[in-house]
Amino acid sequence: AAVDPFVLGLPKAELHLHIEGTLEPELKFALAQRNGITLEHATAEEVRASYAFDSLASFLTVYYDSMKVLQGAEDFYDLAMAYLRKAASQNVRYAEIFFDPQAHTSRGVPFANVVGGLRRALVDARRELGVHAELIMCFLRDFTAEHAMSTLMESLPYKDWILGVGLDSDERGNPPAKFAAVFARARQEGYLLTMHCDIDQDNTHEHIRQAMEDIGVDRVDHGTNALERPELVASLKDRGLGLTCCPISNDWVTGSTKVSDIAALLDDGVKVTLNSDDPAYFGGYVAENYQRFADESGRGREALVQLARNSFEVSWLTGREREHYL
Ligand code: ADE
Ligand code: ZN
């Protein structure tokens, strides 16, 4: 579907974007060749045709398998530069980018390759493209809390390059409470905190409650199911917490974009934002997510402007740059 020029031109912040989820099949082939890896598909079209997800877990299997082409710092640099060029073309002015270091260190890729390559891309993109981006390090919640804690320790020398920490991957049986000590330590170290509370997961309402009340997160990723519990909506509003919603991702993972729920939260005064999550896999970047919201909700420009404003408001920008957008 075509994106309205108004949507494309709207200045936006993107706050829920996994850099590994921006690996387009064409770049995957280029990196496979660089690293001497043979892929199971012959063409980018074949790779795209193979994408068929019906749950978070079925997506994650493909997502992690594709990462084998990411090895050297240069690979992470190219990955991030490709995303930032695309973001610039959609008038994304600021991005807070998730990365999953454990998905790389657990296969023998040094932490320094990951963070070093990503950081260099962010510095170059700010100069060459005028896009400001920062990094959020996510822990894999289906790994142990001890593994997360040792990853947190490994990140400390790079603290100036990492704005906050998040929690992603398979949520089943992995509640926020499992990582209470890790997140408490992360806060002590000066990191801001966010966590995924994915759509329609088991115990999602309890996970949203734990993230807010027990962990004290500064934002909630997804969290759309809060709509079903008035006390969670009230708590989000009292705390001024943003939700990073991802309509096209929701559709792939659950069979619904949840646009009507997102619109209801917006009407209720919750600071919802629109984001792309894993755009190379779900087939839409942030502008396509705004367009999908507009098409399905029937809302006009006023709502889109509010969503874009929310994205800067609940971002972790500070000072004059923040004032500039509000
Ligand atoms: N990792 C990458 N994308 C994710 C998502 N949408 N939910 C949980 N973990 C993820
Ligand atoms: Zn996500």
The number of helices is: 17
Shape: globular
Helix fraction by DSSP (H/I, runs of at least 4)? 40-55%
How many strands appear in the DSSP assignment? 8
Derived structural class? alpha/beta
How far is it from the N-terminal to the C-terminal residue, by CA?
Answer: 30 Å
- Supply the CATH superfamily name: Metal-dependent hydrolases
* Overall pLDDT score: 97
CATH C-level class? Alpha Beta
Small-molecule binders: adenine, zinc ion
CA radius of gyration is 18 Å
Element-by-element helix/strand order: HEHHHHEHHEHEHEHEHEHHEHHHH
The biggest sheet, with number of strands, parallel, antiparallel or mixed sense and barrel status, is:
8 strands, parallel
- Spatially, the strands of the biggest sheet line up as 1-2-3-4-5-6-7-8
Count of the separate structural domains: 1
Note the beta-strand portion.
Answer: 5-15%
Please tell me the CATH architecture by its name: Alpha-Beta Barrel
